[in-house]
Automatic annotation (TrEMBL):
It holds the Pfam family eIF-3_zeta. Its main location: cytoplasm. The keyword Kinase does not apply. PANTHER family: EUKARYOTIC TRANSLATION INITIATION FACTOR 3 SUBUNIT 7, EUKARYOTIC TRANSLATION INITIATION FACTOR 3 SUBUNIT D. GO terms for biological process: cap-dependent translational initiation; formation of cytoplasmic translation initiation complex. Residues 302-316 are annotated as: RNA gate. It comes from Hypholoma sublateritium (strain FD-334 SS-4). InterPro entries: eIF3d (IPR007783). Residues 316-325 have a biased composition (Pro residues). This is Eukaryotic translation initiation factor 3 subunit D. GO terms for cellular component: eukaryotic 43S preinitiation complex; eukaryotic 48S preinitiation complex; eukaryotic translation initiation factor 3 complex.
């Protein structure tokens, strides 16, 4: 019978749990061993992964020291055990480094690592979707849908950061401000867009002060245009004024009577009311004279043109200016795509909007034009060119919160035509605003995923409208707000495309849509109460300042507006530095 002897019992004469440290054997005292941090949530990984034969793992199998910052180990693999263990960032005291002579070592298996098959997008398809292969370049997942392969997986290249489709091709160049910020300007206030989106102010129906201009009847034949019966867009030579607030003689006369606190136009006011939707830079010149505020625009500024796909995920870009130190550097935008840059598209859209409004009215045939109470205030006796169809309605809105507050705003609004048989236009019946959306090239950069209008406009108009509402959210919101401010009953929106995608000089009218501004505002999720809240906030902010000139600037790359104090000579021609305009993306 085998003998059994009890192991020695190490008693603790001092009391307490565990053996005494005095009589505990030295081999169990873990002397000179540093503390290794650990966590209860640590998972036990694989001791050796014989399937993941990356370069660093092959070194480990061969007994070689691992490469610093390598891609092998349990954290590369095939997506398993990628969570970093607690304390793994510290230097390990238990790492093994082989420092003996290895001259006699020889590798038995020197075959290349076999490619992985049946993984990812090319599972069982033999690289039919663009050649996404997992070869010796580290399991690249490139080439999907014909894209160029890139070295290393996304987790290996960017530390696990997920990127969007073709993000490496997007031009992330920062935009320039719409106006040069002079060092002499003093920044007074800064408001983020998320704060503006929380404002709200209910405003009652306005009071009409006076009306000016002449309106022609809208040609209803444009409502029957389809992609199969398209009409060419004509060049119509007409005069239409876009005078700023301070230069308006009617506003100057109204301001002398003190009828309001704030004076502006519908174009300027719509930009301010839709500010949280804006992406491109803009600026508003604010002048305080006595107890009155005048909101003005600059000549040649962003208010004189129309943006294109401003709210698209990848909006049109202007080419990067050439580097004088590197004359061989290629431009960011090829010459063949110069007509699709942000500036070219903006000028093209402005041209389309003006000519579509001139063309879609009846001038020399019944029904006759409708004259407002007064003639056009900007058409001088020396002018000889014919006037465009345009009516100006000066309207007074009350921004007071209580009955004791006397904060009113006088707005010059515009209408473009009237619907015959809908009532007297002088009484505000049947008034119409006319706008135009333009298609340039659905395959070019900045198109925003827009479908081909000629193929989808008649059969799937909803998809076309939804795409335009997404890519041009700010522009459509501004047009809707202008129509509501003017009291228009309808808003006519033309769909105009290039006759040839490579030619930006010839266009055709494919269709025209009619919508009520209030209903369309609900579809766009445009809140007039939020817009009036923004206007009231900016008004209160400026009324706290002393008399002088200020500039409200939208940051070109951030959802922020800033108020600057500027000299009175700025933008008047006397101050050359202040009158310089930046190359904004408008």
């Amino acid at each position: 019978m085998s003998s059994f002897s009890l192991p020695p019992i190490h008693d603790n004469p001092d009391g307490g749990w565990g053996p005494s440290t005095s009589n505990f054997p030295d081999q169990f005292k873990f002397k000179d061993i540093p503390y290794a941090p650990y966590s209860k949530s640590d998972k036990l990984g694989r001791f050796a992964d014989w399937n993941d034969l990356s370069s660093d793992n092959r070194q480990n199998v061969a007994g070689l020291p691992p490469t610093q910052g390598g891609r092998g180990g349990a954290q590369s693999g095939r997506g398993r055990d990628r969570n970093q263990a607690f304390g793994s960032g510290t230097a390990s005291a238990f790492a093994y480094f082989h420092v003996e002579d290895e001259s006699s070592f020889s590798l038995v298996d020197n075959k290349a690592a076999p490619p992985r098959r049946g993984t990812g997008f090319n599972r069982g398809r033999g690289n039919a979707r663009g050649g996404a292969s997992y070869g010796a370049r580290g399991g690249a997942r490139g080439g999907i849908r014909g894209g160029p392969p890139f070295r290393g997986g996304a987790a290996q290249r960017g530390g696990g950061q997920r990127r969007g489709w073709r993000d490496w091709e997007k031009n992330n160049r920062t935009r320039e401000s719409s106006v040069v910020i002079s060092p002499q300007w003093g920044m007074l206030e800064e408001i983020e867009f998320h704060r503006l989106a929380k404002l709200r102010l209910e405003v009652d129906e306005p009071e009409e002060l006076d009306s000016y201009g002449r309106l022609f009847a809208y040609d209803k034949s444009y409502d029957r245009v389809t992609t199969k019966t398209e009409k060419p867009l004509q060049l119509v030579d007409r005069i239409k004024y876009n005078t700023t607030t301070s230069d308006d003689p009617v506003i100057q006369q109204l301001a002398s009577t003190g009828i309001a606190k704030v004076y502006t136009t519908d174009v300027i006011l719509s930009v301010l009311m839709c500010a949280p939707r804006s992406v491109y830079p803009w600026d508003i010149v604010i002048v305080r004279e006595g107890d009155s505020l005048f909101l003005d625009k600059r000549d040649g500024g962003p208010f004189d043109t129309v943006t294109v796909n401003e709210n698209a995920a990848d909006p049109p870009q202007d080419p990067t200016p050439p580097n004088p130190n590197n004359p061989t550097e290629k431009p960011a935008v090829p010459e063949t795509a110069a007509i699709n840059t942000a500036t070219s598209l903006s000028l093209e859209a402005t041209y389309i909007n003006q000519n579509f409004g001139f063309q879609s009215v009846i001038e020399n045939a019944p029904p006759p034009p409708a004259d407002f109470a007064n003639p056009n205030p900007f058409y001088g006796p020396e002018e000889t060119e014919p006037l465009a169809s345009c009516g100006y309605r000066y309207r007074l809105f009350d921004l007071g919160i209580t009955e004791d507050e006397d904060i009113k705003i006088c707005v010059r609004t515009e209408v473009d035509a009237y619907i015959p048989g809908s009532g007297n236009p002088r009484d505000g019946q049947g008034l119409v605003t006319i706008r135009a959306l333009n298609e340039f090239d659905p395959r070019s950069q900045g198109a925003g995923g827009a479908p081909d209008w000629r193929a989808k406009l008649d059969s799937q108009r909803g998809a076309v409208v939804a795409t335009e509402m997404k890519n041009n959210s700010c522009k459509l919101a501004k047009w809707t707000v202008q129509s509501v401010l003017a009291g228009a009953e309808l808003m006519k929106v033309g769909y105009i495309s290039r006759a040839n995608p490579r030619d930006n000089t010839r266009h055709v009218i494919l269709s025209t849509a009619s919508m009520r501004p209030t209903d369309f505002a609900a579809q766009l999720n445009v809140s007039l109460a939020n817009g009036w809240g923004i206007v009231r906030t900016v008004t209160d902010m400026c009324m706290k300042m002393p008399e002088g000139k200020y500039v409200l600037v939208k940051d070109p790359n951030k959802p922020v507006i800033r108020l600057y104090s500027v000299p009175m000579s700025t933008f008047t021609g006397d101050d050359d530095e202040g009158s310089d305009v930046g190359s904004g993306e408008e």
